[in-house]
Structure of DUF4365 domain-containing protein:
Amino acid sequence: MPTDDLWVTALSTWSSTREKILEHRFIADVTAELWARGIFDFAVSHSEVDNSGYDLILEARGVTRHVQLKAMHLRSSTAEFPVQARLEEKPSACVVLMIHDLRTLAIAEYRWFGAAPGAPLPSLGNSIGRQSKPNMQGIRTERPAIRRLAKRRLEPVTGVPMLVDRLFGGAEQMLGSAPVTP
C-alpha cells in the first residue's frame, strides 16, 4: 500500500481538484439535509471570480449566505486560514471549514465562523495575511485585502444538521418561513 506521502503531495499538486470534490460534498450534505427537512426550494450559486471572499451563495427560506469554504486534512497542523476581507461586506457571510480524510476526502468534521441568519459576519480581525512565498529579497510581503482567521475561532459543529441550523436557523424556524422565489 502506498504511503501517505502520495496523498500529501496530491493536496498541493491537485489542489483545484480537491477543492471541487470537497465543495461538491459540502453542497450535497447541506442540500440533502434541507431536502430531509422538507425544504425543497433552495438555491446554490457560484462565484465566477475569486475576489469577493466567497465561494458559494446558498439560499433557503429567505436566508442568503455568502460562504467561504476552507479545507484541511485530519493530520494537518494548520493554525490559521487566509480570508478575503471583503467577505465582511456581505450580509450573513460565513466561513465553513471542512476537515477531511487525507485519502478519501470524506469530511470528518465541519467548523463554523459566522453569526445568526441575517446578522453580519463577526470581525475577521486585523491580522493581515502575507504572501505564502517570499519575494526575491526573501520577504513575505503583506496582502492588505487578506485577513488571517485563526482555526480556534471556528466553532466545531456536531454534524450536518447543526451546520444547516447555523446556516439557515433551526428546523422549527425554517418550516414556518416564506419560500425563496426564483
